[in-house]
């Protein structure tokens, strides 16, 4: 059976030592979050994830969710009690507005808890995760009445949230949405249509479910400009906040899918259900994007989370499994064989995962801090700069962390040989669960298009120029530092490739947009490489300083080695991405459709 | 529901046009295999796979195998009839020795049928596949009596075969095997022990099962030098060839695993079962290697097979799914959206799979022809040269075709968005089934070590030098050919990287073997790139010639485009592999075990 230990120390090192979280004490909620409080919160969260959520991961996968004939959905045994423990710990409202019952602590800490919970039990963590996304959307676009009606209950975990976008004939292209909204004359709308792939659409964890639904108001313009967002509770809410009658929404079926069996993926049928407009008419996609952007970061974190838990179990196995002898002579001559961790190829495999995980965690925290600044800073310029970076980095994190996270789960599974393929060892579940993160909240190809088509050119390239300046500035600052050279030189080379690729788009994609589409996926991964490399360079700088001061020498040396591994073995990929991007679209577009 | 169409035309193009199979007519079995007969055989095989095997793929996955309390194992509904149809088609004995009932046709044709059958239904195809491997082992190392007893029944499909290597505490390191063999005094041995992960170990398709079992004869030396191979029938065979009493071997349980649910993966308990020595005492690993090498090629083909069927279904979906508009303006303005095949990133994804599949198929056929020459040629030098290449290429094909085949199944699944994650579409089954091919018959890390540690240095590097000479000779021959330049120049660059990597091992791994282990995996993939690139260069040469002669211009142009895509987008990876190899083992070996 797999196990999990939350990487509390690594998070503290990143927050306190690398990113100096005390520098953010001017932001609301940060001054309260002293290092001691952060440590206590992380310990508490780790305990919940390790002891309550993780033991239900495999049983939840085996049992799955059940839809009954009356449309009710039952989650796997133990999920309700675990969800209640999650709620009682105050985790849903950790970063939410205190005016509605939240604790107002940094979103960054909620992102950390999301990693821990997703490592422990991704299917279970999705239920509160979706609620947190829905809270963010209502917080930004809801009326005061909507906020008062829904937020306290959602923050308290009594009601959960969902997002309803996809329909059978449309996922990526939301302009094709057919679900319609007809005014009832009392300020509400009658919502009718079918939504598919609705995670946590129906379940037995909460007394109500708050659906955020994209639909088209009768007579609205065609395409994406005619989509509005509605809040549609499963049970109607009385004037006094108590629960009223059932609304006209029900779960028609649940999907049988590759993984995340513990989360109910529902077909939701809306049959004149009463809904209320959230935000402006026909601007529903804008409003939903608040939830989607938060969800995309959440999904990126799931990629890291599966990579981390898969890594931990692969290392434990590599320490215990005795097979073969070291190439340089027996290391454990008294035993029948050496542990497989002596073999270079096993170390290569494991280090490639570990070197990603630490940098990816840093990148998540760095981006989460930008999100906190973007949402909480009182300084307009600082706020804008942070929001720029958040927008730029969100598709990169979503695409790269889920792609590599999945690959890493596969690599970790590989360490187990045949046992990795057998269900009881749990490794194959990590692979199946990790797979969805590359698909939902915008398939990774869409993330790449979002990055290249929208985020790059926005505001004359302001965000990407700021990113280049920051990384380039770091490189320049440490140009003469010999101890930093193994980290800075590869970063400089990869940054150069990224800048060349950006320039190539400017020169070749304006007149011929297919050249942007053809290079978008590689550009996203090239961007991710540079961002991860920049994280390692910052970690290395901190580790060198701490080591010089005599602090945690062995730990710091391990970080320096893992970072060096990343620079030697992963960073060289930047040149391939540039070569692919520069090869353009001609060959692929020349192929006639019928010849594929 | 997924579908499948066997790539008969592509196989004929490769065999007839690219490799000129008529050049092999001096080999036994080849003269009979005229182009017309080959076409008829391939059509017949395609029909069986498309109409009989494929429709059972998804139902077999859903139902799986069942072990009953008495130890019997039932395969999914329809498998027995489909197996019988496979047997009646004479497919098991297609390439087997006519003296024992085989048809003596080229092994190359059996390899093609293996691809078709594995695309259609990998779990089902494994049953006869293992029999064919066992036939090869008995053919090479069995006594005349053993051959007469077992081969006709196995070739006729009445009895099936298995290979029993793995035990709970050992897989890769077979020197640790504990299963023991005690002489009964009548020429037979009593075999006792537990074997795990035995594919097709017990089932209801045949009246008998012939287990080939590695065990240690009492008093044998420790380690791999004390392992012998035994043939252990499930039911004993009377002197007249009829079936006798049940032998002391039974299926203790079947595994619940990620995929290939239709194939029974068994724990086999040997309790004093009667077995007979195959080959020489204590030389069992050598004997088993005959079966393993054939099996490794078979597994490589499974990687290609899953990539092919996943690709076909992804293309069909990309043609039908309407979503979004082309970046260069609507292509189907009358429809609500364009088919997603208009998007460059979708084409990139699909072409990366297709460009691999065609080259991988060529590489399989090229290697299979080497196998035919190695086993059938009367010319000692030709035989030796072919055997060298077969030995060199087997780990490359096993490692690279299964790694990339799995990645491609994942890429094809991605084209379906959320639908790819839903079981009923069938794409996630391809991913789950393809995953095992990276693990069994020697995990891919072991293939890499076999390549670098054994196949490279063998006979003073004779095999690898011959490979370099052949590819280098092709490059030189076409150096001045402008039409070939887009294929030859990238091949030349990658060959250069491969040669540099080989030289790096010579200079750095002799004194420090960890440097070989640290670079072995990248070396295997670098080798694969060059081999696949060489296949594309040969295909391009043929396609250019046929196009110039006015033959199948559109088809040939599509091949030239796919090959160009491979050269532009995949070949550049060679530089990264070289960079990684050259970074050596220092960083990874410096990490203390407790710091992983």
TrEMBL record, chains A, B:
What name does this protein carry?
A: 3-methylmercaptopropionyl-CoA dehydrogenase
Which residue ranges does the record assign to the Acyl-CoA dehydrogenase/oxidase C-terminal domain?
A: 282-451
* Classification of source organism: Bacteria, Pseudomonadati, Pseudomonadota, Alphaproteobacteria, Hyphomicrobiales
Q: Which organism is it from?
A: Chelatococcus daeguensis
Write the Enzyme Commission number(s) for this entry. 1.3.99.41
Recorded hits in SUPFAM superfamilies, A to Z, give:
Acyl-CoA dehydrogenase C-terminal domain-like, Acyl-CoA dehydrogenase NM domain-like
What protein family does this chain belong to? Belongs to the acyl-CoA dehydrogenase family.
InterPro entries in alphabetical order: Acyl-CoA_dh-like_C_dom (IPR025878), Acyl-CoA_Oxase/DH_mid-dom (IPR006091), Acyl-CoA_Oxase/DH_mid-dom_sf (IPR046373), AcylCo_DH-like_C (IPR036250), AcylCo_DH/oxidase_C (IPR009075), AcylCoA_DH/ox_N (IPR013786), AcylCoA_DH/ox_N_sf (IPR037069), AcylCoA_DH/oxidase_NM_dom_sf (IPR009100)
Domain spans labelled Acyl-CoA dehydrogenase/oxidase N-terminal: 80-157
Q: Which UniProt keywords apply?
A: FAD, Flavoprotein, Oxidoreductase
Signal sequence residues: none
Q: Domain of life, per the record?
A: Bacteria
Which co-factor is required?
FAD
Single GO MF annotation: oxidoreductase activity, acting on the CH-CH group of donors
Which residue ranges does the record assign to the Acetyl-CoA dehydrogenase-like C-terminal domain?
467-592
Instruction: Write down the chemical reaction(s) this protein catalyses.
Output: 3-(methylsulfanyl)propanoyl-CoA + oxidized [electron-transfer flavoprotein] + H(+) = 3-(methylsulfanyl)acryloyl-CoA + reduced [electron-transfer flavoprotein]
Name the Pfam families on file. Acyl-CoA_dh_1, Acyl-CoA_dh_C, Acyl-CoA_dh_M, Acyl-CoA_dh_N
